[in-house]
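Recall the central idea of this unit: under ordinary conditions, the amino acid sequence of a chain determines the structure it adopts. In this exercise we apply that idea directly, starting from the sequence alone.
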Amino acid sequence: MTINSALRASASGLHAERMRLDTISSNIANANSISTPSQEAYRRKIIVLEATDDGVKISKIMDDQSDLREVPEPDNPMADERGNVYYSNVNPIYEMIDMMSATRAYEANVAAFNSSKGMLQAALSIGRV
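Accordingly, the structure predicted from this sequence is:
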């Protein structure tokens, strides 16, 4: 692995983890959305990453197909005929765990990028008189 490929791998990891963080923040922002007669509640988004020779790439962003959260609220105007309201399938606790994981991975990529950059700078300084 060359230093340039190490820099590219770290940069692709930074991009992927930033996209994960953006998706997680979108999930958290929509955690309490509800289904309406014309639209289903927000479904949690999941980022699928794929390893490549140059690092990581985002393979796809997909909806989590797990069941929506069903809450009995007969007085809610959005309740169905049985008195249930359907909320988003986002669990804020799981999202916070994913956010911590993405943050740690982002920090690791920054450290790897800075190490590679430092090695490149040291190699360049060898030729100086």
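The chain is about 50% helix and 20% strand.
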